[in-house]
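Dear Dr. H.,

I hope your travels went smoothly. While you were away I took the liberty of generating a structure for the chain from your last submission, since the lab meeting agenda had it listed for discussion. I wanted you to have the full record in hand beforehand rather than looking at slides cold. The sequence, exactly as received, is reproduced here:
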Amino acid sequence: MSIPFLALPLVLAGIMPLLGKISKRFLPDLVANLTLLFLLGYGIFCARELVLTGPNLLQAALPDMTLNITLTLDSFNILLLLTVALVGLGVTLYSIDYMEHYDGKAIFYALLLIMIAGMNGLILADDLFTMYIFLEAAAIASYGLIAFGRKREELEASLKYLMLSAVATAFLLLSIAVLFGLTGSLKLSAVAAGLAALDAQGAAALCAALFLMAFGLKAALVPFHAWLPDAHSSAPAPISAMLSGVLIKVLGVYTLIRVVLTVFGLSSAIENILMILGIVSILTGAFLALGQNDVKRMLAYSSISQVGYIVLGIGIGTPLGILGGLFHLLNHASAKGLLFLNAGALEHATGTRELDKLGGLGKRMPITAGTSVIGSLAIAGVPPLNGFWSKLIILLALIQAKLYAGALIAALAGILTLWYYLVLQRRAFFGKLNEAWQNVREAPFWMSASSILLGAVCVLVGLGFPFVIQNWIQPAADALTAGQSVLHLPGF
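The corresponding predicted structure, in token form, is as follows:
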């Protein structure tokens, strides 16, 4: 049940360069889009089966040899797999037209499929070393994709991301080594049981701190966020959508949630640390986004702020808070992926993403403008769009936990978010049309179609939020908290 999520994109990534020799455009476009469409459909099928049969475990094996690799499929990670497939499908549809002005389309799709396979493997992995292997596979592919255009700023951004990721990797490996030395296992549940049986709270606290720094850097939480604005603004638009829509959530937020809750448990100190990181990220990202003139840099800083909401929701530690955090993870992936695709459409049409050079483009690009309004309002938390419900749940969870100051900050930051997104819309799409853009046309068909797809998700999830919460989010939150460990760390 788990293997197609991992094997299919890997196998097709391997043959993609050969397909590119046969057909430079049609076959790579067709195969990449069919792959993501299959993964999305298969994910929906698996989600239905999980409801009927419960979690699925797979022990990977070779002939005459059992590998110590276990893949787990439950209601929590199927939510992430579906998110990756949905945003990935939007990206591959968009790339049919957008990547026409880049060389090596088949190589682009090969790297993209490796990144997707790496994320899927990380989501399914049930032990720390396998998680590390797939995390690095996805990260290495992302370095290549950020630098794909081979311009100076792209190469610099990719190198900066690589260097800071190396620091995160060092933290991660050190923590894994200490945990293996203490417990003799890397399987998440066995590590949790081993730590609970040992009198090694000091070492466990050190490992928890190292994991928080490593995954905080991958998730671009403040103060570990320095790499994100450069990487997300320099990459090709579809890759920016993948990076901000799903990569930082899978490599950073998902692994942080999975490891911390399963191995260490949500002690009061860890909850406080997560809430502080979340609130600082919400405010810092929002204020920095407000002062940006570059559309993609504004969106990148906005991602830091919105990831802060997710981490804040998880950090509350209550069932309602975890539910809100997971719901906002899904909503931000679709809305921010959409906005980065819109930013790419603007740059594709005008050659710039500087707001002071744009203006009035809604008259020439109504689909891009309309979907951009939907994405902006969704992230800002305007009803009835999807982001409104997830932010409302996080606010209610803060009030329920009597964290009134946190609720006030989150609400005010929501107003700030609405402010800078209205500024973006006014300066890019409304007002008098800049004479330089008199001949600008709407984005090509597939770029518009992918924006409509993700825009529809924002609207439909918002309108059907009771169904989504009952059938997707609540089971994911239940699966996550069911595997939660309770480890009392010193001073925590």
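Two observations you may find useful: The radius of gyration is 21 Å. The longest strand covers residues 65-73.

With kind regards,
E. W.
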